[in-house]
Amino acid sequence: MNSQNDKPQPITHMITWGMLSGFVLALLYAVWLGNAGLFASLGFLLNPIAWVFAFGYGAFPGGVMGILVGWFIKQFTENATTADELKATRWQVYLIAFFLTLGIASALVAPLLTIFALWVLIFPPFIAATASTYAAHRYLFQQRLYLEGQNTRKLKNDEKAKNENAMLNRLSDEHMIDDNDGRFVGESETTVESIDHQ
Questions:
Q1: Residue 61 and residue 41: Cα distance in Å, rounded?
Q2: Number of other CB atoms surrounding residue 170 within 10 Å
Q3: What is the distance between the alpha carbons of residues 191 and 188, in angstroms, rounded to a whole number?
Q4: How many other CB atoms sit within 10 Å of the CB of residue 56?
Q5: pLDDT digits (tens, 9 = 90+) for 59-102
C-alpha cells in the first residue's frame, strides 16, 4: 500500500489489481460454472491445477489489461498537481477503465462462444470492467492523498522559510556585527560607544 510519501504509479497499480482480481474472479467463476457441492468446490480451489487455470485465464489477461488501462489513466492524470485538478479527470478515468476493459474482455471470451452459451460468457466482461473501474477509483484516491500531502508539506516549508526570514530580518535590524572582534553589538551599546568616541 502506498503511503502519503510514495507517489502512486498508475500502471503498476492497475497491473497489480488486474492480476489479483483476475485470479480470484477466474477461480470463483469456475466454481460457479461447475455448480458442484461445497466440498468439491473447496477441493477445486485448493487444487494447483485450478491455480494454473486461474492464472492463465484470469491473472495474465488481467495484467495485460492493467498495463493498457494504467497507461491511459497516466495520460489523464500525470499533469494534475492538486486534488481539484485530479478530481476533474475522474469521469474520464472511470469511462476509460470500464469500457476499455469491457472491450478487451469481450474479445477474449468471444472465441468461447462455440463452446459455451452466450448467457454464460456475458457476465465475465462486465465483472472485469467493474473491477477495473474500482481499481481506477482506488488509484485516484491514493493519488489524491499523495497530492494533498505534498501540498501540505509545501505550505509548511514555505511557512517555515517565511518565519526564518522574518527572524533573520529582525536580528539584522536589532544588531550589527562589530568588525573588530566579531561580536554582536546592540543599538543602545552602539549609541553609547559613539558618544564616548566623540
A1: 23
A2: 10
A3: 5
A4: 11
A5: 999 999 999 999 999 999 988 888 888 889 999 999 999 999 99
